């Protein structure tokens, strides 16, 4: 790390010492950018690093709502509008008790680079609330979403900031938020993505993050002369990303041997496919049950409070649950168990220690901002369809998604090579993404 980069990082650590996840994400990106700022002094001269690590705007507000018993409840809501150099702020809303401003800054910061990699005109943003949808009735979720949007609507818009889903925010929540936005502004417009198909949504958007992650992993395998056929694939999570990653892996001939939720993991040596995959979809999306019920249904082992990483042998690992879910020790277990590629479906699921283990062992490692960019890319395609007022077929959308993922893989690989770290997708993703945003900031002058 050179003096300019370490100076920016030190200042950030002093200023936001309690925002652990944000500092972790910033450090990873800034470290990768050292050769870029050394090669081209224009970035330092314009203070690009100092500017890119600060959100352009952070909105924080309270969300009062009433539960089914008539009790008053209060949650915190946020929208981090991080960077608009290449397009309107774009990024999901997360509803989870762990949400705070630091977590959303980490996600918003990552989103700047992810969105840049898609090659679509989208800036970086993220939002959410510490509300926990688990165990809430539909009516409670609706009242909460309506209250949230009653404040959020004034900060967003189709050309300003376009939120989407993330952990805890799926089709149901997007529906309630969209309905309230439309009611307040009296306009039917593409202010959110992940919408229902009947009211402006895109085919393949629900599948996009999982499918895209598998397309990226497939490119990583191809670069090493192999593919998914016959591979044992370990997944974590059992939400949106994990569900459709599983479906695509099955289509490509791999076997999905694990899934998890926040309570524990299952191992199914038969593979989570066909009727078993359908059961999982119903369990998680309709009955909103726990992964343990899958183990009870099919008589497979369930590991309470455990992540899957050390539980059995695997060829490929796709962490698809949440941040920091692979520790350095977990990574060692994966390496010991024969993993030949790791692709992050979730955002920053690997701790810095885990990344070090993968890179140190020359295991191809795809970082979340590249691997899971298919979700936001397809959100971008949803915005295009809304603007054109037409709908593409599922085949058209999937084809475009596939092309985008192949291109992201290529630009990460090329940037890594250009800056002397061939095969390092972390550096490649950060460098390729940064240059486009930074050059746009230079073009637009000192506005943020
Ligand atoms: P979902 O809410 O649909 O699923 C999340 C899954 O992860 C659930 O199985 C959940 O278990 C588990 N999980 C959540 N928090 C924890 C935790 N603290 N410890 C262990 N397990 C946990 O979310 P998504 O599938 O949409 O998102 C998964 C990841 O992918 C996130 O990192 C998200 O930011 C990222 N991502 C999502 C995109 C999308 O389009 N949806 C786009 C790009 C990235 P439980 O049900 O028990 O909470």
TrEMBL record:
Which residues belong to any copy of the Glutamate/phenylalanine/leucine/valine/L-tryptophan dehydrogenase C-terminal domain? 202-445
State the family it belongs to. Answer: Belongs to the Glu/Leu/Phe/Val dehydrogenases family.
One Gene Ontology cellular component: cytosol
Q: Name one Pfam family in it.
A: ELFV_dehydrog_N
Which SMART domains does the UniProt record give? ELFV_dehydrog
Which PANTHER family does the annotation name? NADP-SPECIFIC GLUTAMATE DEHYDROGENASE 1-RELATED
Q: What is the protein name stated in its UniProt record?
A: Glutamate dehydrogenase
Q: Which organism is it from?
A: Candidatus Thalassospirochaeta sargassi
Q: Which domain of life is it from?
A: Bacteria
């Amino acid at each position: 790390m050179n003096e300019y980069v370490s100076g920016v990082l030190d200042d950030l650590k002093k200023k936001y010492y309690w925002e652990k996840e944000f500092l972790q994400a910033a450090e990873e990106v800034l470290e990768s950018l050292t050769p870029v700022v050394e090669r081209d002094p224009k970035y330092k001269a314009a203070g690009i690093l100092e500017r890119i690590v600060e959100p352009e705007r952070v909105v924080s507000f309270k969300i009062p709502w009433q539960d089914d018993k008539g009790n008053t409840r209060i949650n915190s809501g946020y929208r981090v509008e991080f960077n608009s150099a290449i397009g309107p702020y774009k990024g999901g809303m997360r509803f989870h008790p762990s949400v705070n401003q630091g977590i959303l800054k980490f996600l918003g910061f990552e989103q700047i680079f992810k969105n840049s990699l898609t090659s679509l005109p989208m800036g970086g943003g993220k939002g959410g609330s510490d509300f926990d949808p688990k165990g809430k009735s539909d009516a409670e979720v609706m009242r909460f979403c309506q209250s949230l949007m009653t404040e959020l609507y004034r900060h967003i818009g189709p050309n300003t900031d376009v939120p989407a889903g993330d952990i805890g925010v799926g089709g149901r929540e997007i529906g309630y938020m969209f309905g309230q936005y439309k009611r307040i502004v009296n306009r039917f417009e593409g202010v959110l993505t992940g919408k229902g198909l009947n009211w402006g949504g895109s085919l393949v958007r629900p599948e996009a993050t999982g499918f895209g992650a598998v397309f990226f992993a497939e490119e990583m395998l191809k670069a090493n002369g192999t593919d998914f056929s016959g591979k044992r694939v370990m997944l974590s999570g059992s939400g949106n990303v994990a569900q459709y990653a599983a479906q695509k892996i099955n289509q490509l001939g791999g076997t999905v041997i694990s899934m998890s939720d926040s309570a524990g993991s299952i191992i199914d040596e038969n593979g989570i496919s066909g009727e078993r995959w359908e059961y999982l979809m119903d369990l998680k999306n309709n009955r909103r049950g726990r992964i343990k019920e899958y183990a009870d249904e099919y008589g497979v082992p369930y590991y309470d409070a455990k992540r899957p990483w050390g539980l059995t042998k695997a060829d490929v690992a796709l962490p698809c649950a949440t941040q920091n879910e692979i520790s350095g020790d977990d990574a060692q277990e994966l390496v010991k168990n024969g993993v030949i590629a790791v692709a992050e479906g979730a955002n920053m699921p690997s701790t810095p220690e885990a990344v070090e283990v993968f890179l140190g062992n020359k295991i191809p490692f795809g970082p979340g901002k590249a691997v899971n960019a298919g979700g936001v890319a397809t959100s971008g395609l949803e915005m295009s369809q809304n603007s054109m007022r037409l709908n593409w077929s599922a085949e058209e959308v999937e084809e475009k998604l596939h092309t985008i993922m192949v291109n992201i893989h290529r630009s990460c690989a090329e940037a890594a090579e250009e800056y002397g770290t061939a095969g390092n997708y972390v550096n490649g993703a950060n460098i390729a993404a940064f240059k486009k945003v930074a050059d746009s900031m230079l073009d637009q002058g000192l506005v943020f």
